[in-house]
UniProtKB/TrEMBL annotation, chain A:
Name this polypeptide is given: Sorting nexin-2
Coiled-coil region: 416-443
A GO BP entry: early endosome to Golgi transport
Membrane listed as a keyword: yes
Organism whose genome encodes this protein: Oreochromis niloticus (Nile tilapia)
SUPFAM superfamilies named in the record: BAR/IMD domain-like, PX domain
TrEMBL record, chain B:
InterPro entries (UniProt xref): AH/BAR_dom_sf, PX_dom, PX_dom_sf, SNX5/SNX6/SNX32, Vps5_C
SUPFAM superfamilies with a match to the protein in the record: BAR/IMD domain-like (SSF103657), PX domain (SSF64268)
Protein name in the entry: Sorting nexin 5
Keywords: Protein transport, Transport
UniProt record, GO biological process: pinocytosis; protein transport; retrograde transport, endosome to Golgi
Domain PX: 1-161
Gene Ontology MF, one: phosphatidylinositol binding
Species annotation: Oreochromis niloticus
Coiled-coil regions, chain positions: none
Similarity-based family: Belongs to the sorting nexin family.
GO cellular component term of the entry, any: endosome
Length: 492, 388
């Protein structure tokens, strides 16, 4: 019997009045509520990483002597102050390395987000609760990752960015698709900081909170990233050192932009001899996907805009119809017109709600994936760089060998020895380069497969939710018009 | 002709009298000009034939309307509002924009958008045919106007009417209408009313007109927003189609989005017909009623002036009989206008209430039908997605 644990994430937002002189810093704190629950195996059928009964999938946990997961296991079992086994109840989890893949359990994250008011500063609270699985037995559980079952932490927006920055620097270059963090918006944030309490700033906050939730969810869904100590620290520890280099206009930020530009130029000059058609195929596939998703995103944004317009127009018509009803001197018709005005007013609210659903479900999903594809493409680029590095070492080795051959005929034993040493070093480098290249290629294959599965699942889930929202709207419409119909018939 | 019946409900009780039946069975659209075929079936002896058709242009309808308005005898009647000029500007502009943007769309997207525009074009065409038809039917069902000589000429004269139209313009100078429009508001509100009924009607109509004009404009904006959403669905479904090769989910969504687009489009056009067209028609009808009030106010002013003239004549002891006759005539005219005006306005109210009722019921029923349709489509799709 296998179990999977479920991590439930709640992100709430704390709105606080902050003194203006602190505007320069990022005052927004987010509250993340994490809930780890257990689930019987039967419900885990869809979970790609924990399916012990399902078909052999090209997952990260294939039988492979170099199982990445095994490495992560060892990492977790290292003793550290935060890793003390301090579960509130249940058996003390034994971290026993077991034969992958069948019984590996990864927490599955489900998130729901809400906003709270609190004094002292804008903050987002992270409430984390970890509940015991019913049976641990000989299976490894990720329960051991957390020392408490329920806790809350406060995090600033810049903390999220800092987390991403750390993960990106650790994992991107070896082929892992690290989910990108939400973008900074200087204009939007300034409004909130100045304390503007209006519709647009509320919308901005909600948009940001929702984006952070999705970001965190995607990050912890990644089995490798979840076990990263930075992630765990982010979720758990009460105080986090301030992330300093994340401000948009800071020197570090500018440096990042410059590096990105430099990377782009370099990428264009690398001509790689692709031996593996799979990579070429996939790259092309992601290029196409990128184009289509961007187009779709634009169309959906247009839909949101038009639906908001419809809502406004409906509200205006409702008011106008009400005035017309007042002016009408035939009593029954006057009443019907007023009723019509009321119906249209309710419908206006419906359109507004639907526009929100259009946006938060559909549009934001597409936006997320457009950004995710950038990370995917980045990973392919890193592979190219890794290849280039390997090739460079090889070329350098070749040169050194030629130089050494020449030195053989001269009488410079010191130089010869030096050359031989350098060659040995380079040979090691070349071997390492080849290993790195093979490793990153393998990682990317696994990552891409995981990504694609996640994407299909994600889209399906969201589309179903979206369609259900449309159903709700239509059913409400039916109710309203059915209520109006007798009024219309009553005109005489 | 089944689709046309929906617009007929803006004005009911038409075309029931078998002695004079009029319809526009078809029309031709050449560039900007629309040629209507006006078909008459009659049992009246005043006509030369019992069944005949003539081609007419929009300008001919306007000529007929104007001659009726300028006929003194009909001053006490609500002259049915003239049909508006056929307006193909909106679909034509969109067609132009579509042509410009063709390069950015897939072939299917372009085809679908073109189909939508052609449907819009057709809808405008149908609307204009109906509005012209209703105008004629209002005339044919009116006890007095149906006997008008010019009306008969319009229906029967098998030559080009444009010669007559020019003559008419020369006769009446063509400035009468323009002069009237600007002065009527002031005159109607300025004249001291003697009759409670008309006092009430005046207040009501002036206020109601501005309100219904506003409502018409707002309803138009609503309809346009619905159409925009339907267009968005076309673009979305086209992109999903391109994604479909990669992704199974997209394929299923493609169908649902296309269906949603159809429903949304239908909601838009039904709303347009039942609500916007209704409001638009009655806005024009109320203008016609206001015109009646104006003519009556003019007659009252004339009568009051004739009284003053009579007093003056009596003072001067000169031309008294003429002044008396003039005054008597003015009074007679005014009384006649008031009497027929009262009848017309009362029946107008009844007509309006009936039309609103019919359209509101039909609109609510259609909205319910479309929403139920959508729910079925959506739930079917959700089932399909969940089961996979």
């Amino acid at each position: 019997m296998s179990l999977c644990t479920e991590l439930v994430l709640d992100i709430t937002y704390h709105q606080v009045k902050a003194p203006l002189f602190l505007v320069a810093q990022d005052l927004t704190l987010f509250c993340i509520c994490v809930n780890v629950q257990s689930q019987p195996a039967s419900l885990a059928a869809e979970d790609i990483s924990t399916n012990s009964n399902g078909p052999k999938q090209d997952s990260l946990f294939d039988d492979d002597p170099e199982d990445l997961f095994a490495e992560a296991t060892e990492e977790v079992s290292l003793d550290s102050p935060e890793r003390d086994v301090l579960l509130s109840d249940g058996p003390s989890p034994a971290i026993t390395p077991i034969t992958p893949p069948t019984s590996v359990i990864t927490p599955r994250i489900v998130s729901c987000v809400f906003i709270e008011e609190e004094e002292g500063g804008d903050s987002f609270d992270i409430h984390i609760s970890v509940s015991d699985p019913e049976k641990v037995g000989e299976y490894m559980t990720s329960m051991s990752l957390f020392k408490r079952s329920e806790f809350a932490v406060k995090r600033r927006f810049s903390d999220f960015l800092g987390l991403h920055s750390k993960l990106a620097s650790k994992y991107l270059h070896i082929g892992y698709i690290v989910p990108p963090a939400p973008e900074k918006s200087i204009v939007g944030m300034t409004k909130v900081k100045v304390g503007k309490e209006d519709q647009s700033s509320n919308e901005f906050v909600e948009k940001r909170r929702s984006a952070l939730e999705r970001y965190l969810m995607r990050t912890v869904k990644h089995p490798i990233l979840l076990k990263d100590p930075d992630v765990l620290q982010f979720l758990e520890s009460s105080e986090l050192p301030r992330a300093v280099s994340t401000q948009a206009l800071s020197s570090a930020g500018l440096l990042r932009m410059v590096n990105k530009a430099a990377d782009a130029v370099n990428k264009m000059t690398i001509k790689m001899n692709e031996s593996d058609a799979w990579f070429e195929e996939k790259q092309q596939h992601f290029e196409n996907l990128d184009v289509q998703l961007r187009k779709l995103h634009t169309s959906v944004e247009s839909l949101v805009c038009h639906r908001k317009e419809l809502s406004v127009n409906t509200a205006q018509f409702a008011k106008s119809a009400a005035m017309l009803g007042n002016s009408e001197d035939h009593t029954a018709l006057s009443r019907a017109l007023s009723q019509l005005a009321e119906v249209e007013e309710k419908i206006d609210q419906l359109h507004q709600d639907q526009a929100n659903a259009d946006f938060y479900l559909f549009s934001e999903l597409l936006g997320d994936y457009v950004r995710l594809l950038t990370a995917v493409k980045g990973v392919f680029d890193h592979r190219m760089k890794t290849w280039q590095k390997w090739q460079d070492s090889q070329m350098l080795l070749q040169k050194k060998r030629e130089a050494e051959a020449k030195l053989q005929f001269t009488n410079k034993p010191d130089k010869l020895q030096q050359a031989k040493d350098e060659i040995k070093e380079l040979e090691g480098k070349v071997q390492q380069g080849e290993r790195d290249f093979e490793q990153i290629s393998k990682t990317i294959r696994k990552e891409v497969s995981r990504f694609e599965k996640e994407r299909v699942k994600d889209f399906k889930t969201i589309i179903i939710k979206y369609l259900e929202s449309l159903v709700q709207t239509q059913q409400q419409l039916i109710k309203y018009w059915e209520a109006f119909l007798p009024e219309a018939k009553a005109i005489s | 002709m089944m689709a046309f019946s929906s617009l007929r409900s803006v004005s009911v009780d038409l075309n029931h009298d078998a002695s004079l039946l009029i319809d526009i069975p078809d029309a031709l659209c050449e560039r900007d000009k629309v040629k209507f075929t006006v078909h008459t079936k009659t049992t009246l002896s005043s006509f030369q034939k019992p069944d005949f058709s003539v081609p007419r242009q929009h300008e001919d309808f306007i000529w007929l309307h104007d001659t009726l308005v300028e006929t003194e005898d009909y001053a006490g009647l609500i002259i049915p509002p003239a049909p508006p000029k056929p307006d193909f500007d909106s679909p034509r502009e969109k067609m132009h924009k579509l042509g410009e943007g063709e390069a950015t769309m897939t072939k299917e997207e372009y085809t679908k958008m073109k189909q939508e525009l052609e449907a819009e074009y057709l809808a405008v065409f149908k609307k204009t045919v109906q509005v012209h038809e209703i105008f004629l039917q209002r005339l044919s069902s009116h006890p007095v106007l149906s006997k008008d000589r010019n009306f008969q000429i319009f229906l029967e004269y098998d030559q080009d009417l444009s010669v007559r139209r020019k003559n008419a313009k020369e006769m009446f100078g063509g400035f009468f209408k323009n002069m009237v429009k600007s002065a009527d508001e002031v005159l109607i509100s300025g004249v001291k009313e003697v009759d409670d009924f008309f006092e009430q009607e005046k207040t009501f109509l002036l206020d109601y007109y501005s309100k219904i004009k506003d409502s018409t404009a707002k309803a138009e904006k609503m309809t346009r927003a619905h159409k925009n959403i339907a267009d968005d669905y076309i673009h979305i479904s086209a992109t999903l189609n391109s994604l479909a090769a990669d992704d199974m989910t997209a394929n299923k969504n493609l169908n649902i989005i296309l269906s949603l687009q159809k429903v949304e489009g239908r909601v838009a056009s039904d709303q347009d017909l039942k609500l916007t067209e209704l409001l638009r028609y009655y806005m024009r009808d109320i203008q016609a009623a206001k015109d009646l009030l104006y003519r009556r106010a003019r007659a009252l002013a004339d009568y009051e002036n004739s009284n003053k003239a009579l007093d003056k004549a009596r003072l001067k002891s000169k031309d008294i009989p003429q002044a008396e006759e003039h005054q008597r005539q003015c009074l007679q005219k005014f009384d006649k206008l008031s009497e027929s005006g009262k009848k017309e306005l009362t029946s107008f109210k009844g007509r309006r209430v009936v039309a609103f009722r019919k359209n509101f019921i039909e609109m609510a029923e259609l909205e319910i039908k479309h929403a139920k349709n959508s729910v079925t489509l959506l739930q079917g799709c959700i089932e399909l997605l969940k089961s996979n």
